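note to self: dont lose this again. the chain is below, predicted strucutre after it. 217 aa total, dont forget to put it in the shared folder this time
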Amino acid sequence: MKGLLIKDMKLMLNQKKFFTTIGFIALMLVSVAKDTTFIISYMTFIGALFTLSTINYDEFDNGNAFLFSLPVTRSRYVAEKYGFGFLMGGSCWLFSVLIAAVSGEVRKTNSAQDTLLIALEIFPVILILLAMMIPFQLKFGGEKGRIASIAAVGIVFVVCIIAAKAADFLKIDWYALLDSIPKLSWGATVAVTAGIAAVLLLISVRISICIMEKKEF
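---
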């Protein structure tokens, strides 16, 4: 796995101009926006998406056929992609938290503590999105993978809309139902979200391994 991580890191070093541009945009946004915390979700999501780029690089010009001629198992390849996504997303998350906290303190818009609390809520959500997108990228690859990921997110929204319409038709008061649920503390909410993210990641890894084991190169 170490060799795969080094390979992907070197691939990302070839994109240093893009990284510099993203970092510059982030600094510009936090200098003009009133709410600096949105940059955390932006940067973390961009960082996690680089995992999809490495999958595209591996597939380019039938590169996977050569890659799997090396002592690399398919399950280890999948595990490395999730690990790389976590490292990239985590690195961008730390960078964005730092600049958002400094900007918030200097401009007196958000305290560093509030920024950190919001950041802790954002990170599990990004992991959930990553868990959703990697299997589609491995299954369809390239442009088709991105379209399939967008379609999956769209389906989730459509299902939510249909559920809301069905509740209206059946005269179910969702607000009253939600109010009847005991309120969780901030720490419990973050813990539940992190738990959901962990479960979805494990399911996603299993699905991705099955996809890779069935692919032919």
